Amino acid sequence: MNGAADVLLARLAQEDGVLVHVSATQGSVPREAGTWMAVWAADATGTIGGGQLEYQAIQEARAQLAMPQAHDARDTAARRYPLGPSLGQCCGGVVFLRYRRITAADAPALRTELIAHLQPVALFGGGHVGAALARLIATLPFALRWIDSREGVFPSALPLQIETEHSEPVQDAVAGLAPGSRVLIMSFSHAEDLDIVIACLRRLRERDDLPYVGLIGSKTKWATFRHRLEARGFTDAEMDRVTCPIGIPGIGGKEPEVIAVAVAAQLLQTLRNA
């Protein structure tokens, strides 16, 4: 369960590379600003969109790798690439790329840099669906905080962009979530689920900084929860901030991996809507 950042850091311990970073874009482009690719002598990790743009970027990066490091700029000024006839790409936009030679000495700083632009997600629950979702999120533009009240439920080895937390009671972790976190609730018990929902609604009432709160379960489960939440003084408008059932509609199947795909797709939709 390794993300591209983990692959980069492991490779960097063996050889130098060049980090190619999309610093800015204009118009229609294959990848957004913040996207990166690490180029090595024989191959590359990640992608900035493929096609002639990526081909030329790889050639430029390898030319830098071939230079003695003393003569190689550590961080070049951004280069402008119009995606028109000269590149054989008809997107019509412009991509600005920066090239930076990286070595093993850069690994500590890169650990922070490579996940800085990722959107925070909090996942409550280390069960089968939670594990399937964590594996998928490790490949997407999210930084995951994975929380459970039980000891020993998380895998021993996890990607760089996943941080685990043991919290008892589990709902106490809500107060410490990063602002802007998208929250997924799928603990091992309905009682815990309800406590986490209550904590999220209270935080929304106080700070309004959780753009998405999703609860796994059926319409029947949510109807029961709404009655209990109403008894605790939450309004219809507040309860409408919770998405239940979660996942984009139209994807059948109850296998953990299928549910994970539907939920991850809905998370990606929230990025687009934002």
Describe the structure.
- The chain is of the alpha/beta class and 274 residues long.
- It has two domains: 4-113, no CATH class; 119-273, NAD(P)-binding Rossmann-like Domain (Rossmann fold, 3-Layer(aba) Sandwich).
- It has helices spanning 4-12, 51-66, 107-113, 128-137, 190-206, 219-231, 236-239, 256-273; strands spanning 17-26, 36-39, 44-46, 79-82, 94-102, 119-124, 142-148, 162-166, 182-185, 212-215, 242-243.
- The strands form two sheets. Strands 8-7-6-9-10-11 form a six-stranded parallel sheet, with helices on both faces. The protein has a five-stranded antiparallel sheet with strand order 3-2-1-5-4.
- Strand 2 and strand 3 (44-46) form a beta hairpin.
- It is elongated, with a radius of gyration of 22 Å.
- It starts with a helix and ends with a helix.
- The model has no long low-confidence stretch (mean pLDDT 92).
Structural class of the secondary structure composition? alpha/beta
Percent of residues in beta strands: 15-25%
Mean pLDDT: 92
The CATH topology name of the largest domain reads Rossmann fold
Number of domain modules: 2
Q: Between the first and last Cα atoms, what is the distance in angstroms?
A: 28 Å
Radius of gyration: 22 Å
CATH class placement of the largest domain: Alpha Beta
Task: Please trace the helix and strand order, writing H or E for each element.
Answer: HEEEHEEHEHEEEHEHHEH
Number of helices: 8
Spatial order of the strands in the main sheet? 8-7-6-9-10-11
